Each structure stands twice: as C-alpha cells, then as structure tokens.
Amino acid sequence: MTMGEGFAHPEYLVDTEWLADHLNDPNVVVVDGDLEAGYLRGHIPGAVLVPDNYAKDPETGRVHILAPEKFAAFCQNLGIGDDSLVVVYDNNQSLYSGRLWWCLNYYGHTNVKVLDGGWRTWVNEGRPISFDRVAAKSGATFTPKLDESIMVKVDELKEACSLDDAVIWDVRSDGEFTGANDRGNKRAGHVPGAVHLEWFNVMERDSHKFKPADEIRQMLNDKGITADKAVFAY
Fold first, then answer.
1. Domain map of the chain by residue range?
2. What confidence tens digit (pLDDT) does each residue in 95-117 have?
3. Which class is domain 152-233?
4. Could you read off the pLDDT of 19-71 as tens digits, one per residue?
5. Rounded to 5 degrees, what angle do the CA atoms 66, 103, 122 make?
6. How far is CA 164 from each of CA 57, 160, 161, rounded to the nearest angstrom?
7. E strands of the chain, at which residues?
8. Do 27 and 139 contact (CB within 8 A), yes or no?
9. Would you say domain 10-147 falls under CATH 3.40.250.10?
10. Phi and psi torsions of 194, nearest 5°
C-alpha cells in the first residue's frame, strides 16, 4: 500500500495500483478534490466530490479551516467516519488533495492518503473512469480531535524569524514572494528571512507525481530546509 522509496513518511502516499485493487473495500472512501466541473469530466469510480470552495469563508472569501462541528458535518456528508481510510486525489498536482489531507490531520484523522499522480496518472494508465455522481455512504460518524501542533500561530512565527534552528518556507508564487502580486492581501511581500521554493517544484509536471525523494531533498537542502531544523511553511 505504501510507496515513495526514500521519503521520510511514504505512508502519506498511495499508488494507483493499490487503489485499483481496493476501490470496493468497505472502509475506503475515495475523494475527488477538484471543482465540480472537473468531477463531471470523469472521475475515479466510487469517488465522492468535495463541495466547491469548501475551504473558503463564505463571508470573506478567504481560505480558512472549518469549525469542528462544521468539519464533522462536511466529512459525514462525504461518507467519512472515524474508521474510514480516505484516499484523496485531484488533477492539480495534488494541490487540492494536499489541503484536504492537512485538514483531516488537523482534526485528528490521520488515516488519509494522497493518490500519487492523482487523476492524471490514473487516466494515463488507462484505468476505469466513471461519469456517475456518487452518493456518499450513509451513517458515518466523524469525531474531530483537534491537533493544534500542526498549525503555527503568528506569535510563534515571529519568534521563529530569529531562531537559528528554524527555517520559514514560502511555498507561494514568485510574484507573491516578491510583492508584485498581493493576491488581495492588505500587504504584499513575504515573512522576513523566509526562503522561497514554490510548491509545484517538488512535483513532476507530466505525471503529477511527486519527484523522487533524493531530488526533492536536494532542492530543499539548497534552500537551507534541512532535517535538523524546525520548518514553518506558508
């Protein structure tokens, strides 16, 4: 089931072969993290769809994390319960599935995997696809168990700016890092001392898979993002 030779946590990923063999497992919930338009173009058989813009505050339009009771309802509406093994995928180099992976971990559900290569690899391998809108499994109970250790507070980030054993990693675009693009924020630029490596540099453009661990590790080392440091990413 696990994959990703050389990665510190290969269990965070799952490959298409494993998923194809376990699509009908009763405890497996496959989640398509794309927008509805993408889901309707075709999806992995049995996959349920996240609501469009679920990660945005409806009042401000800003990306946020749902409150515990709302996140529990969100998961239950997808058929995700406490005992579910969740596999998330998208057609955007794991950008959206990675976000849902983090949200589930934030609320204590660590039994979640990202499909390496996502929709792109699944289709390129000629695996079956579906156009049916899937009804989520009923009766799921999701119990949020907040893990605040994976989210940094502003004061903690300010302190990290002056620590020798910490590195702040800005994963945004070049324009956002330099301040040329404020993306609607009140202020442009980056956290003082942050290093910049846009997130998609760790992905293979054609297959949408993660690059080999050694290649990613070298890119990170070149930026000073090393295993002996506390890493704060934004």
1. 10-147, 152-233
2. 999 999 999 999 999 999 999 99
3. alpha beta
4. 999 999 999 999 999 999 999 999 999 999 999 888 877 777 778 889 999 99
5. 125
6. 35, 8, 8
7. 13-14, 28-32, 48-49, 85-89, 112-115, 166-170, 195-196, 230-233
8. no
9. yes
10. -70, 145
